[in-house]
Amino acid sequence: MNKPLVISVTILALFVASTFLPMAAAQYAGVGGGGKVNLEEQLALAKAKVKAAADNPATGSGTPYLDATGVVGGSVIVGAVFGGIAIAFVMKSRSGRFAKAK
After folding, report:
1. Please, what is the end-to-end C-alpha distance for the chain in angstroms?
2. So where are the chain's domains?
3. Distances (CA, A) of 100 to 31, 46, 89, 90, 94
4. How far is CA 56 from CA 18, 52, 70, 71, 91, in A?
5. Looking only at Cα atoms, what is the longest distance across the chain?
6. What span, in angstroms and rounded, lies between the C-alpha atoms of 19 and 48?
């Protein structure tokens, strides 16, 4: 059996197995899965969360967009790191052994 076929079959088997395994069931706290929390309790908790968010508008959504651990801050940091690496590669390629002589 050739190697690409074995790898392909293995990956396909993992994909098929992952559809049968309820990996993300923990986030629903037992709704529909025989857990201890029923749908009415989940709805009451959701309403309490919405009320708490409406009572405290200054808290926002909880996603720190401009913080270094947030979306924009993280994007800027990652962009700076990978941009610096890209610039280093470009500068190194201009002075390397295979650079064209001028």
Report:
1. 52
2. 1-62, 63-102
3. 65, 64, 16, 14, 8
4. 40, 6, 21, 22, 51
5. 76
6. 33
CA 4/CA 16 separation, integer angstroms: 18
Give the global pTM: 0.37
- Are 37 and 29 contacting, i.e. CB atoms less than 8 angstroms apart? yes
Q: How far apart are CA 9 and CA 11, in angstroms?
A: 6
Considering only CA atoms, which of 56, 82, 79 is closest in space to residue 68?
79
17/51 Cα distance (integer angstroms): 40
What would the pLDDT profile of 61-96 be if each residue is shown by its tens digit?
666 666 777 778 888 899 999 999 999 999 888 887
